[in-house]
Design goal:
Length: about 325
Amino acid sequence: MWIQFAPLNVPLDRRLQTAAVLQWAFSFLVLAQCCLVLYILLVFSQYWALAALYAVWLYIDWDTPSTGDRRSEWVRSWTVWKYFANYFPIKLVRTSPLDPRHNYIFGFHPHGVLVVGAFGNFCTEGTGFSSLFPGLRPHLLMLPVWFRVPFFREYIMSGSLVSSDKRSASNILSKKSGGQAVVIAVGGPPEALDAKPGELTLQILKRIGFIKLALTHGAHLVPVLSFGENNLYYQVNNPPGSLLRTAQEKLQRVMGLALPLFHGRGVFQYSFGLLPHRRPVYTVVGAPIPVEKNPSPSSEDIASLHALYVEKLKDLFETHKMKYGIEKERQLVLY
């Protein structure tokens, strides 16, 4: 295989961008495992008392990811996130102001392999979320299992990540003061299996839980399309019905995690590795869909709002696709 190496005279700014993405990839892919190993080592070392104290803290703090968050504006504003966003670059595009007196559910599409756009835009200030949407407090939902990992849970909560269980989103959206934005990657981990360059396949037609949640709490719905999200990694061909796809789907049902076989680039070469490629990502936040509170929505209420949401999502795609490199003839693939 021909390997394309990076030139030696790369500007310092680009090297810092690569370093920022490298630490993110490490955090996303292996930091949880490292934290778990560290805790086990503490348990069987002379510092076992520290492990015991942390176990007490974990017991006391167990429900925090489901009852709120423990974000740190200092962590969200680290300079490293500016370099992270500029690596691709990631751009956050506002199409309409959002009134902070209301609560919102942002439907993020597509999931992509590693949800890069959602993290960069809503878990950091790398793209200036607070400046574009003053008064809003974003919360990105993440699988509950990651909040059970010692030490790692503290880090991800500092970036405003919260558990994706139903109780978590309900607690956030119940705040009457408004200004809360729950960000949901609607397609979930299964959609990662369709994340390939040049494709935009969304799993949404059977996803109604976020619609019911919006109606129950009167949270306004905001469709969000992240153009370029699927271009960051290549994935082993796995068409529906193939042996690989069938195995991946079975593992996903058992483990709750999608396991796409993907590759990007390395630190010193561009041909293979776990770093995403330097390709632009434009995350377009659409106009809000007003939702009246309905504590007991009927199936018809849910279906009606779901149809409206899908229509607005399609409109958002059609309005912006040519600006961000998608041919006029291309259509969203929904299932």
